[in-house]
Structure formats: C-alpha cells, structure tokens
Amino acid sequence: MIISTIGFVAAVAFVTPNWNGVFHCDIDLGQSNAGPFVWIEYELQVQDEECAFRSLGVQTDERIKCKLNRRGPVLDVLFESYSNGNLTNIHGVQVYERDAVLVQLRQDQGRIVTQWFTIQPSENTPQISHCFQRTEKR
Q1: Mean pLDDT computed over 86-108
Q2: CATH code: domain of residue 122
Q3: What is the rounded average pLDDT for all residues in the chain?
Q4: Closest CA to 23 of 55, 58, 65, 61
Q5: Residue 42: inside a domain, yes or no?
Q6: Cys staple from 52: which of 45, 58, 109, 121, with CB 3.0 to 4.6 Å?
Q7: Residue closest to 23 by CA, chosen among 42, 51, 44
Q8: How many domains does the chain have?
C-alpha cells in the first residue's frame, strides 16, 4: 500500500506599500534650560525614487537629499547629501556619512512605525514610535 501525501505550499505575497507622498513627524522636546519649549518637525517627501528630508525646529533647519531602500513593508531613508549637494552642513561639519540610514519607516497593520537611526531627535525620544504620519498621498 502506498500512502500518498500531498503537500501544500503556502506563499505569502508581500505587497510593497506605495510610499509616495509627504510624511510629517512633530516632536515636543520639552522646556529648555533657557525657558522656551523646544520642538522639532520632520518632513519626508517621497516621489518614486526621489526623496527630500527636512528637519526644522529651535536652532535646527536641515534640508537633506536622501535615497530610498525599499524592502517589502520597510522604507529606509538614507543620507545622500545636503540639498546644496555638499556632505557637510552650513557649519562645515560632516554629521552624516553617505548612505547612512537616517530613519526607517515600516508599515504595520495600517500604521507607520518610525525607527530612528543616524538622526535621533533627543536622548529622551524613543528609538521606535509611531511618529511619522502621511499627510499627503501622491
């Protein structure tokens, strides 16, 4: 007697999310020693393979040309240069290495999970949160 076993292979297809759009993340960093409240706002603009990242806040205004690495539900945002093409900031300091992951976004059950890498808003900011939200879809 021959026993026949039929195996079923389950394939899970990951649909790559459409990341095109504008994403915002606002962080309240609390009150400074000098008195005023400190905040920082991040904006990420994605259009196909084009990427622009901006941080704006108290004593902060960086405009970065970034690159993207898409891996299933994950989007890595990598430093390419500042918007003027330089690897150094307005003070002549190289803060980020080329291709360093600045931040990672991941789709998880309809929400965007933010994981900070090279950019860290503050030592008190959780490394993983739900900070970035899509504000415009393209």
Answers
A1: 96
A2: 2.40.128
A3: 88
A4: 55
A5: yes
A6: 45
A7: 44
A8: 1
Block residue for tokens 């600045």: 102
CA dist., res. 52 & res. 133, Å (int): 16
3-state secondary structure of 12: coil
Q: What share of the chain is helix, strand, coil (3-state, %, to 5)?
A: 0, 50, 50
In-domain check, residue 8: no
* Alpha-carbon gap, residue 1 to 68, rounded angstroms: 57
Confidence band, pLDDT 50/70/90 cuts, at residue 32: confident
Question: Helix or strand or coil: residue 50?
Answer: strand
DSSP assignment, residue 11?
Answer: -
Full domain range(s) for residue 42 = 21-137
What 3-state DSSP class applies to 138? Answer: coil
Q: Give the separation between CA 70 and CA 104, rounded to whole angstroms.
A: 10
DSSP string across 89-122: -TTS---S-TT-EEEEEEEETTEEEEEESS--S-
Q: CA-CA distances (angstroms) from residue 65 to 15, 48, 80? A: 26, 14, 6
Query: Pairing state of beta strands 74-82 and 111-116?
Result: unpaired
pLDDT at residue 131 above 60?
A: yes
Q: Is residue 3 part of a domain?
A: no
Residue 33 lies in a domain: yes
